[in-house]
TrEMBL record:
Region (Disordered) residue spans: 375-424
Record carries keyword Secreted: no
Basic residues: compositionally biased ranges: 389-424
A Pfam family: DEAD
UniProt GO molecular function: ATP binding; hydrolase activity; RNA binding; RNA helicase activity
Keyword hit for Repeat: no
Keywords: ATP-binding, Helicase, Hydrolase, Nucleotide-binding
Motif extent (Q motif): 1-30
Protein name, UniProt field: RNA helicase
Residue ranges of domain Helicase C-terminal in the record: 225-383
Residue ranges occupied by any Helicase ATP-binding domain in the UniProt entry: 33-203
Organism: Peptococcus niger
Residues of the DEAD-box RNA helicase Q domain: 1-30
EC number: 3.6.4.13
């Protein structure tokens, strides 16, 4: 199946290639295009990094929609960062199609005056967080009667506040096209909407290019294991460290910086400008250790994340899927997901393996290097694994060349020489 087979124009196909390096549709994109183009309500579920954003944008961003002088397509996402990411993709694509002012993003923490100014131009595509969009409805700056399609991206996270989603639905027409998107969708989540939804899934539950690892440790000494792990990974790309508790992020970041490691935190309570500065630092490579809560596990596309580290054990398999999916994004990218496991976590780990169909390999850190397998006794010398991280090897000074031994003349030769001198 090609984009031409799906009906994309030459201009659209060229834009995809130039902007995103995309030449062929992924499985979920090929499956989603026909029903979405026909106006059907759909639930999309596929692994992180599978191209779900383009899966719903491509069939819906038609010339007819983009030429409209009213709000037609409403996309809701749980965080400002994800809204901005979707808006950047949609705006670049629409601009390439000749509609440079078709997209407006509206989310909390940003200047609402600017957002109101942009909405005054009646853009056909509006992308925002639930709270800000409801505020705009209350101010009568959005007209729900003109919205033809509602997309809920990372819908399982959005349903953390079901009252907001129910309120949003009341502002729209009953027969609005509904699109639900996530890496994991449960029956009870779909039942919330009470709609006839076509369920579409990709080819797998987790990216097969992610190496799942566990680093055994004591529950009270996890930081003592994190510290040598991060030092061993210096020079091996960017690490994303996950915590469960927001109030611990600043403390962990401060301890890492005290050790001279380029770390920064990312969490929902930060000011929007601070969060954007951190994201920019990660993309530039100035920050190689990002410490976050599950905020960063939802939809953010950070292609330079080389390894995900779970300092705190993920609360459920779904959380693990979203966290681990921050690495190995892209057609051929590979990554690692390392869980610091205390004894009490091992039973849950076995459940995660069964439910997700994956296997965790054990690893350990010794003398500044990462190794696969059980940690041996200190007397043994472990062998580095090529499947593990690209750890830096310590440079050793070259050995001096061996001294050349001077050759001594044989004794009989010395006597002969002395006799010749006597004769003279």
């Amino acid at each position: 199946m090609t984009f031409a087979d799906l009906g994309l124009t030459d201009t659209s196909r060229q834009a995809l290639k130039d902007l995103f390096g995309v030449t062929d549709p992924t499985s979920i994109q090929a499956k989603a295009y026909p029903p979405l183009a026909q106006g059907r309500s759909v639930a999309l579920a596929d692994i992180t990094g599978s191209g779900k954003t383009l899966a719903y944008l491509l069939p819906l961003l038609t010339d007819d929609l983009l030429a409209a002088s009213e709000n037609r397509l409403l996309i809701i996402a749980p965080t400002a960062e994800l809204c901005k990411q979707i808006a950047d993709v949609a705006d670049a694509y629409c601009t390439a199609l000749g509609h440079p002012q078709a997209v407006t993003a509206a989310f909390g923490g940003a200047n609402i005056r600017y957002q109101l100014e942009q909405l005054g131009k009646r853009p056909p595509v509006v992308i925002g967080t639930p709270g800000r969009i409801l505020e705009l409805f209350n101010r009568r700056k959005l007209n729900g009667q003109t919205i033809r399609t509602l997309i809920l991206d990372e819908v399982d996270a959005l349903l953390g506040k079901p009252a907001d989603i129910a309120d949003l639905q009341k502002r729209l027409l009953r027969d609005v096209q509904l699109v639900l998107v996530s890496a994991s969708l449960q029956d009870d989540q779909l039942a919330f909407f009470n709609r006839d939804l076509l369920r579409l899934a990709g080819d797998g539950a987790l990216n097969t290019r992610i190496h799942h690892l566990i680093l055994p440790c004591q529950s009270s000494r996890k930081f003592d294991q994190l510290r040598p792990l991060l030092f061993a990974l210096q020079g091996s790309g960017t690490s994303l460290v996950f915590l469960n508790a927001l109030d611990q992020i600043d403390r962990i970041v401060a301890r890492l910086r005290h050790l001279g490691l380029p770390a920064a935190g990312l969490y929902s309570a930060m000011h929007k400008n601070d969060r954007q500065a951190v994201m920019q630092g990660v993309r530039k490579g100035d920050i190689t250790i990002l410490v976050s809560s599950d905020l960063a596990a939802r939809g953010l596309d950070l292609p330079i994340i080389d390894q995900v580290i779970h300092l705190d054990f993920p609360n459920d398999p779904t959380t693990y899927v979203h966290r681990a999916g921050r690495t190995a994004r892209g057609p051929e990218a590979e990554g690692a997901s390392v869980v610091l496991v205390a004894g009490r976590d091992e039973a849950a780990l076995r459940i995660y393996e069964r439910e997700l169909g994956i296997h965790f390999d054990k690893m350990f850190v010794r003398d500044g290097l990462c190794y696969l397998g059980e940690a041996p006794e200190k007397a043994e010398k472990p062998t580095p694994s090529s499947k593990s991280f690209k750890a830096k090897k310590k440079k050793t000074a070259p050995k001096p060349p061996p001294k050349k031994k001077s050759k001594k003349a044989p004794k009989h030769a010395a006597r002969k020489k002395a006799q010749q001198k006597k004769k003279r």
